[in-house]
Each structure stands twice: as C-alpha cells, then as structure tokens.
Design goal:
single chain, about 325 residues, alpha/beta, Rossmann fold, 3 domains, 5-stranded parallel sheet, 11 helices, about 45% helix, elongated
C-alpha cells in the first residue's frame, strides 16, 4: 500500500517529464537525492539527477498555475436605482471599498435612472450574459424584479438588496425571496414616522404650522409607504397643515424648481420636509433665491452635504441612513 501511494504522488511528475521528451528521466524523476534499493547482499546507493530542463519546466508550470489563480476575478453587478442620486453614489462607494479590500472583486455599476423597466432589462441582460457571480440590487420598485431575482438565484447568482426590499411587500424588511443572501435598509413606513416626528418638533409653538412635503416620486410604492408613515404622525397635531406635496425627483435640480413653485403659492411656509437630503439642497437654493429665511428644513439620510448645511445652521435636521456602510457590508456578505 505504501509503495502504491508513492507512485500515485509521483505520477504527475512522471507524465510531465515524459512530455518534455527527456530520455530516461521519466523512469526516475526525483533529482539531487540519494535513493536506496534493497538487494540480497546489502544496500546499494544510487544518485539520479534530473536535467535542468525538467526543473525549469516544472517551475514554469507552477508559476503559470499560481498566476492563473491570482487572475481569477469575482464579478459583482451593482444595480443602482440611480447613479446620479447621492444616496446611491454612497452605496456604490461602499461596494468599491469592499472590492478594494479583497483585491479580486470587480464592481460593474448599472444606472437604473429611477426607471423600473430599465432596471429590469439590465438585470435580464446580466442574467443572460452569465458574467456576474453576485448581484447587489438597489430596486426602484422591488416587486417587478422578483421573478428575475429568483431566476438569478436558481442559476447560482448570490443576491443582496439594499434600501428598497426585493420582493412584493414594500413594508416587509425581512428577506422575501428564498435564497437571497441579505437585505439592508429601514422600513419606509417607519422612516416616514421618523420624518413626521421631526416635523412635529419643528412645528412646536407655531399655529398654524404650514408644511411642504417633498417626496422623491410619490407614485412609487416606497414613497406611498413613507407618506403614510409621515401622515400617521403629523395628523395627531392639530396645528400642523400639509399645504403642499410636490415631487423632488430625488435630485437637487428638480427639487429647486418644485420649491420655487410652492413658495410662490405659499410664501408663508414654515417647514419643508423631504425624503432625501439632496432635495433639501435644492430647496435651500430656492429659499435663498426667494429671500426666504427662517424656514425649518428636514431631510432624509444625513449625507455629508446635509451635515455641512446643519453645521451652518441652514438645514434643521435629518434622519440617519448609512448608505456607504450598507454598500460595503452587502459586498462583504456576498
């Protein structure tokens, strides 16, 4: 049995040497070592030397094998709801942080442009390509993506989702799709309640307190859930009046326009609250252009930009999200 095991170990070396075309070397490929053979009359020592060409060949093969392993890359597709959105820009940065740490992970970002059908098409194309071993999904709307995500998981793709749940229930923050690795995010109804609490605080001592609510895209299920959460809190305060609801598009530019329109119709606004800090940045510019001061402004996410505005006394407050941490953690778990 012992002799058989030794032959098995030497088998690959014998074949390599034989392929090198070196006469006789395949019979004893062990070089530079003494070998003992038992004979009836005693022990005879023989020394066999493997030619330099064989050693060079073996070294080349070993180096080639190691190089091949170093070159293996894990492809991760990041399906961002929108690359222009500062929240998702931070998520992507977190994903890249994790990729740099591992060294063999490549991140490819797909910009959904807040368009569910576009995002769905991107995911279908990625599935057909069979290029990506993992998906990091930031849904615009998780419901329509469910079937494609199930297909990806069935084909062996690891899937993690952030901010918006992947699955049909926008209020369910648990993993809804069997086989999905992780979901990270805060429930939108609960997030709306936190925003409502900020509004209630800002409206203390003001009667009536006129409020402009600026969601990103009010038709999205996530914004409907967030609005319901907000309203469930502010309706308890008789002094609070929601006098305007206008979409800010999750970006500063459309938020600036929306705020300009609202301030023209309601010049005595007391509070502006939005579902994204980037929209508050637009509202700040609109208020400044209109010469309005003293408006309390509450955002969502607490971005670096929001922190600066709060420190400057321009923005009043925000609810906290950790998008870069989310992105980094999800790639770690995938």
């Amino acid at each position: 049995m012992a002799a058989r095991r030794r032959l098995t170990r030497r088998g690959p070396l014998r074949r390599i040497v034989a392929l090198a075309g070196i006469p006789g070397a395949a019979r004893d490929p062990v070089g530079g070592a003494e070998r003992r053979s038992q004979h009836e009359g005693g022990t005879v020592k023989r020394k066999v030397t493997v030619p330099l060409a064989v050693l060079t060949l073996l070294a080349a093969i070993a180096a080639s094998s190691a190089f091949g392993k170093q070159q293996e890359t894990i492809e991760v597709a990041v399906f961002a709801a929108s690359s222009a959105n500062t929240y998702w820009a931070a998520e992507v940065e977190g994903a890249k942080d994790a990729a740099k740490k591992y060294g063999d992970v490549k991140i490819t970002v797909f910009d959904g442009q807040f368009n569910t059908q576009k995002q769905l098409n991107q995911m279908r194309d990625a599935l057909v390509s069979k290029k990506y071993e993992a998906w990091f999904v930031g849904p615009n709307d998780g419901g329509p993506l469910t079937t494609t995500i199930k297909q990806a998981i069935k084909s062996g793709v690891k899937v993690g989702c952030a901010l918006v749940p992947c699955g049909p229930d926008i209020r369910n923050t648990k993993v809804q799709i069997p086989g999905q690795v992780v979901f990270m995010g805060v429930g939108f109804y609960g997030n709306g309640q936190l925003l409502g609490q900020l509004v209630t605080t800002g409206c203390k001592g003001i009667d009536p307190c006129k409020v402009f609510w600026m969601p990103g895209l009010p038709t999205l299920p996530l914004e409907k859930a967030r609005t319901d959460g907000l309203m469930s809190v502010v309706k308890k305060s008789a002094n609070i009046e929601i006098v305007a609801v206008q979409p800010g598009g999750y970006l500063a530019a459309p938020a600036l326009t929306a705020t300009q329109n609202v301030l023209q119709a309601n010049p005595d606004i007391n509070v502006i609250v939005s579902s994204g800090d980037q929209m508050i940045a637009g509202a700040v510019r609109a208020a400044k252009a209109a010469g309005k001061t003293g408006i309390k402004m509450y955002g969502n996410g607490c971005t670096f930009e929001a922190k600066k505005l709060i420190q400057q006394g321009i923005q009043t407050g925000c609810t906290v999200y950790l998008p870069r941490t989310e992105g980094r953690t999800i790639v770690d778990l995938l």
